[in-house]
DNA sequence: CTGAAAGCGCTAACAT
DNA sequence: ATGTTAGCGCTTTCAG
């Protein structure tokens, strides 16, 4: 009820414990250099008064907030279809929590929101930022750079300038794609198609590159662009069947796309994997395990990537700025998970 | 880069504009009671220096943070399967953003995290809280009550004491369920089953109640408990078919459950809706529109519920505490969306 | 309408 | 090892 008024201050605790504010502060912040009996007395006073430090006052002097922003700049509705973000968020949340940091979520709905986000980051409300889903033409990285906030990106950023300086966590999209396609080749398939993701994202572009690495020059009609969604996958698969009725394998850019593709294949009476083998990417369990038949896919450890991003950022912050031997980007390996579709 | 050091202060702006700190503060906070020429001068100084107010310093004196916590206490993995939370988050985010408030996300993974959340809320880091997914035996509401932070709940809380005081936003689960079942009855179905959600959540309990309202006394074997997940829906549908092979309609507690049920029905060779009609609940588009056949379901406006929760909380905060004519809970209507399964 | 001054609650030198 | 003191950057009376 009437709380704000009555919150005890350091002063109050000090009075109660019969010590100075400084001593209480020391105890509250770890208790180093304070003798045991005093520590004990202060602890009790804190307990009795239900003292909780005022974060604003603390931040004002330490210039730290123990909070990091998570910026999700997905203009489209993918966030709401793909468990990807939720998983990543969970990893981030776990890691931040373990280090007593708070997660400030910044969702952007479009260009208009970019300025707001930039302003917020520049405002020094948070110690750092974790940024997702950049597209090639995204103005956000520039704005963030300008804000001067330590940042780790989720997925390799695609813009050209200053690429080296950007720290990111990604999975080996290209290598994973190569594995997938090689597997298809090993199965004896010869008309192997690829349904891409949005090619203005590096993850999609890299997977396409992996496909090309293995396939070399192929019938260009075997590559059809899509957008990481089930509906997009359906449309693309439809086109594919129309253009190349003899297709005998499909590497879909992600599991959701594969889901759509499977649906169309079934509708059109193609047996999977007998007539057409299918491989996805991500291994988002609720999707991949539940398709019919269960999806063979390239697994990336999404939650771990989230955790890693947070860890990287926190370690950067701990070193006091990106200057001191900044940690570098991490690219995690992928694994091909064989289920029933290939 | 080296930013924190160089961030200009009110003082700097004041100096540049040739006025006092107080005047700058007034202008920055709306400019009431400052004459136009001065306002203009100050604005320019702010612009030129790129001044951004220090939130910590401001909070220290105003005792406001312009931030609210969103607590998602979903012990299970539902968050990562069901677009429900993402949609709600989006609604909340939009509303908060519109009022210059920040969203602090608190994800809890289990009982251990409860204390942490309670401590955080009690710590006065945020002005209020939006809390989700309470189960009947959840200790969180009590802890939150204790923290003395204005709170709005997502979904009717189920615990018995002090229920009246809790403000929540929910949809008319019972009424929606009644509509669904009545529709099934109108279709001439007589063996209408219900696959429930987790009955320790009021949303699931209320939907079951709605089913009972219409069905009255029925074969108890027609009601089978589940958990809002596709896998749960599969299992439940399987049991149902074993126990009551003559079932001719199913009202599933949510769309994901319906998804699982549809899968099993297809596997077992039952035609939908000819042999068995199916209705879901939620109308989460990516799910409901994409089932085979498209799902008839009870729609609730999830994003709007999120927006409403935020609006309610903010208005409470604006009035300066829950005391002054606190806004009361809101229950939104539902609509039956007829697609192909019933 | 504007300025001067007093803190908000805390940490971090600096003394002791 | 503990206490004293000086702010962190801002808002808000209170004078003028």
UniProtKB/TrEMBL annotation, chains A, B:
One of its GO terms (molecular function) is DNA binding. The keyword DNA-binding applies. Residues 8-62 form the HTH lacI-type domain. It comes from the Bacteria. Pfam families: LacI, Peripla_BP_3. The keyword Transcription applies. InterPro entries: HTH_LacI, LacI/GalR-like_sensor, Lambda_DNA-bd_dom_sf, Peripla_BP_I. Keywords: DNA-binding, Transcription, Transcription regulation. PANTHER family: HTH-TYPE TRANSCRIPTIONAL REGULATOR GALS, LACI-RELATED TRANSCRIPTIONAL REPRESSOR. This is LacI family DNA-binding transcriptional regulator. It comes from Streptomyces sp. 900105755.
């Amino acid at each position: 009820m009437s709380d704000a008024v009555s919150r005890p201050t350091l002063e109050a605790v000090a009075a109660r414990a019969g010590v100075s504010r400084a001593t209480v502060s020391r105890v509250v912040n770890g208790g180093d250099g304070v003798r045991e009996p005093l520590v004990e007395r202060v602890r009790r006073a804190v307990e009795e008064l239900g003292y909780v430090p005022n974060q604003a006052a603390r931040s004002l002097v330490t210039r730290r907030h123990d909070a990091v922003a998570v910026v999700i700049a997905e203009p489209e509705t993918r966030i709401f279809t793909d468990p990807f973000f939720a998983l990543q968020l969970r990893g981030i949340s776990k890691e931040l929590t373990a280090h007593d940091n708070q997660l400030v979520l910044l969702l952007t709905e479009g260009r208009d929101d970019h300025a707001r986000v930039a302003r917020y980051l520049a405002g020094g409300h948070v110690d750092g930022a974790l940024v997702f889903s950049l597209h090639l033409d995204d103005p956000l990285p520039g704005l963030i750079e300008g804000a001067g906030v330590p940042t780790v990106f989720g997925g390799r950023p695609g813009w050209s300038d200053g690429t080296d300086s950007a720290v990111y966590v990604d999975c080996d999209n290209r290598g994973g794609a190569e594995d997938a396609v090689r597997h298809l080749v090993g199965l004896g398939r010869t008309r192997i198609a690829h349904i891409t993701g949005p090619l203005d994202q590096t993850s999609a572009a890299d997977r396409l590159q992996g496909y090309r690495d293995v396939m070399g020059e192929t019938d260009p009609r075997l590559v059809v662009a899509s957008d990481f969604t089930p509906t997009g996958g359906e449309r693309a698969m439809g086109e594919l069947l129309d253009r190349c009725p003899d297709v005998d394998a499909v590497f879909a850019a992600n599991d959701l796309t594969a889901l759509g593709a499977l649906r169309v294949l079934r509708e059109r009476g193609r047996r999977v994997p007998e007539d057409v083998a299918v491989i996805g990417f991500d291994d988002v369990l609720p999707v991949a395990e539940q398709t019919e038949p269960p999806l063979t896919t390239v697994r990336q450890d999404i939650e771990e990537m989230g955790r890693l991003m947070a860890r990287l950022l926190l370690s950067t912050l701990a070193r006091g700025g990106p200057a001191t031997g900044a940690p570098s980007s991490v690219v995690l390996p992928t694994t091909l998970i064989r289920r029933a579709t290939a």
